[in-house]
Design a protein that fits this description.
Length: 203
């Protein structure tokens, strides 16, 4: 049956001049190959369902991450939720910081709402004047906030400058602050100040 092995494995098939039984078997195999169904095409509906499921899983993971972040905030910094601060307007956030720093022993001076030259608050303590630039952000604060704080420090003749935000800082902002000796208070440092205030008032 070498002819059959050759036929099945792609080698040269026996010539058509062989016996009728051989030719009939060969034709039958050829017919079977031709009648084989073509490869199935991708089902658009099935692909849509897969994509929808993948998107739903991603959304669920993002919600879980946010929930865990909120839990970590509450565990480390008390009951005040950071999202509550993010809902404040710029002026409301400045007023909240004025109360917060007053509680921590600073004398607080406010600046004009417009034309503040880069400082939203001026803190006084231990014969030091500190220019505060407040940023109630949900994302990352950039170099402009550091530049504004430096401008406020120069205009109001302060000894130092701070930036306070409910978010975080970009790499460039951190580098500029390091070079210019501006203190950056992110959501974590702000949370620590809030927790200290809550603990002291609860006693």
């Amino acid at each position: 049956m070498n002819w059959l092995s050759n036929l099945l494995f792609g080698n040269k098939a026996p010539a058509k001049s062989q016996d009728p039984q051989t030719q009939h078997l060969r034709d039958s195999l050829h017919t079977i190959k031709q009648q084989a169904p073509p490869p199935a095409k991708p089902d658009p509906h099935a692909r849509y369902l897969r994509d929808t499921l993948h998107f739903a899983k991603q959304q669920h993971k993002q919600l879980q991450d946010k929930h865990h972040e909120r839990e970590r905030w509450q565990q480390h910094y008390g009951s005040l939720h950071i999202d509550e601060l993010k809902k404040l307007s710029g002026v409301e956030f400045e007023n909240y910081l004025a109360e917060l720093f007053t509680h921590h022993g600073y004398t607080v001076e406010t600046t004009p709402i417009t034309g503040d030259y880069g400082a939203d608050l001026i803190l006084h303590k231990d014969q030091q004047r500190i220019a505060i630039q407040a940023k109630c952000y949900t994302g990352s604060v950039g170099v402009s906030a550091v530049q504004e704080a430096l401008s406020g420090m120069a205009y109001y003749r302060c000894h130092s400058a701070w930036v306070v935000t409910t978010g975080n800082y970009t790499t460039n902002a951190i580098e500029l602050a390091r070079q210019s000796k501006v203190r950056l208070l992110s959501r974590n440092e702000l949370g620590q100040l809030i927790l200290q205030m809550q603990n002291s008032t609860a006693k």
